[in-house]
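Let us work through a complete example step by step.
Step 1: write down the sequence.
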Amino acid sequence: MYSRTLREAIHPVRTGISFRIEQKMTEGCMVCGQDLIYLTEKTEEPCLICGLSFPTHTRCTQGHYVCDSCHSKDTLERVEALLVNSRDADPVRLALKIFEIPGLNMHGPEYHSIVPAILITAYQNINEDRNISAVREAIERGRSVKGGSCGLHGNCGAGVGAGIAVSILEEANPLSSAERSAANRATALALLAISGNAGPRCCKRDAITSIESFIDSTAYFEDKPHDTYTCKQFAANKSCMGKACPYHPAALHKRPNEVLKGDLNT
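Step 2: predict the structure and record it as tokens.
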């Protein structure tokens, strides 16, 4: 699939102790496009872009490492710009628009910010009550969920994004009662829905699953119609589940939120 040489693919330009990547890859390693490998033991790796070193379980087969901050840089600025200028109250349709942003990585920690920011924006648009600081807060909180958390910590950042959205909407904090409970329940239901996909990570699949879980399990979008998502990236995604994915054009199974709807109800 990746026929270009490493030199042709990345065109790195040295800037001090770091590199500027003139052509970013959107699948696998964003530097060269090769597969990522997940290490059993954490190592200290220098980020090829900013030059700073971080402990990580991840690098590509060519030895490249890009930190979470550099991985999401620029993309989340475009996400914020799209959302603050949108009046769309359908969170799935907002996700579809964000998925078309040029340079959006197929996988990455930016989806941990995308989910709560979409949910906050769509709910504000329903009520015609814009609060840009809340959208920015959602993006910042999502940044704190590390890349690879789905497999390494057992909490997919897209699912945590559902809880982040409730926390912001309800102004929850560690001392809250009902608000804290609601935020944790939103995360739990999103993670339960994500767990219904018995396959490797796919950030768009898990983002849409979390958004649909949020719509179905909370009252924020009650009785509001929303678009459906059909995947367009399956041919490019080397770890795609194929027809076993509920969003594949030829899906064999129901969407996970339909299968698990009603679980954890109180």
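Step 3: interpret the result. Residues 60 and 128 are 44 Å apart (CA to CA).
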